[in-house]
Amino acid sequence: MDNTFRKSMDGDDMLAFALRWLPFGGGDPEDIWIAFGLSERVYFHRLQMLLDGEPPPGIDDSTWLRMKRSCSERLIASTRPPATDLHQP
Questions:
Q1: Could you give the CA distance from residue 61 to residue 75 in angstroms, rounded to a whole number?
Q2: What rounded mean pLDDT belongs to the chain?
Q3: What is the pLDDT of residues 16-36, one digit of tens each?
Q4: Are 17 and 35 within 8 A, CB to CB?
Q5: pLDDT at residue 51 tops 90
Q6: Can you tell me the distance from the alpha carbon of 54 to that of 84, in angstroms, rounded to the nearest whole number?
Q7: Taking the mean position of all CA atoms in its chain, how far away is CA 32?
Q8: Is 58 helix (H, G, I), strand (E, B) or coil?
Q9: Half-sphere exposure of 18 toward its Cβ, with a 13 Å CA cutoff?
């Protein structure tokens, strides 16, 4: 299989997944792992690169902007250290 074709298929799958999960703030890390075999951070980094381009046919500018915003928020959240429980001794 041609690498360009493979990259396009992966990109299309990532955009479809992002669009499907957009109303919920993106997929859960487990869903991302199952669908793509990628960590949350790697998935959203790759998605961000796809979202830097023009929206494909069928995705309006408003939805594209929401996808970009959601992706950025998830990337920021994935770099924060986990919260600690302040109530533990």
A1: 21
A2: 85
A3: 999 999 999 999 999 999 999
A4: yes
A5: yes
A6: 40
A7: 8
A8: coil
A9: 29
> What gap in Å lies between CA 42 and CA 45, rounded to an integer?
5
Which amino acid, residue 29? P
Sequence letter at residue 62: S
What local confidence, expressed as pLDDT, does residue 6 receive?
Answer: 39
Helices 3-21 and 61-79: crossing angle in degrees, nearest 10, is 90
Q: Rounded distance, CA 37 to CA 31, Å?
A: 9
Tokens 């951070």 belong to: 41
Contact status, residue 64 vs residue 51, Cβ threshold 8 Å: yes
Task: For residue 73, give the amino acid letter.
Answer: E
pTM: 0.78
Query: Which amino acid type is present at position 81?
Result: P
Count of residues making up the chain: 89
